[in-house]
Amino acid sequence: MPYKLRSGKEVEFDISKKACHPFGFYHGDMIDSRHGRAMVLGVRDNALWFIWDSEPSIALMYEDHYKKEDFIREGFTLVKRAERKR
Fold first, then answer.
1. How far is it, in rounded angstroms, from Cα 68 to Cα 52?
2. CB 11 within 8 A of CB 2
3. CA–CA distance from 86 to each of 19, 70, 83 (Å)?
4. What whole-number distance in Å separates Cα of residue 56 and Cα of residue 64?
5. Neighbours of 28 (CB within 10 A)
6. Averaged over 14-39, what is the pLDDT?
7. pTM for this predicted structure
8. Phi (first) and psi of residue 32, to 5 degrees
9. Could you tell me what percentage of the chain is helix, strand and coil, using 3-state DSSP and rounding each to the nearest 5?
């Protein structure tokens, strides 16, 4: 799935269940952490990438990524599982 980063560079994320499964979060899932709420983009370079909702009142968003041990340590929790096509 292509996505344009803040830098303007377009990158591809693997949104397959197989790629996301080791992280426990999947493309489109909403998560919470001490940093705020975010939506999962997918996997790239062995890390799970998110779009963070940094300022809900004006809907500014930015992307970030974490290795599995990072988001376990940071206490990420699932808010809403994305609906999947069967």
1. 17
2. yes
3. 18, 31, 9
4. 17
5. 16
6. 88
7. 0.73
8. -120, 150
9. 15, 45, 35
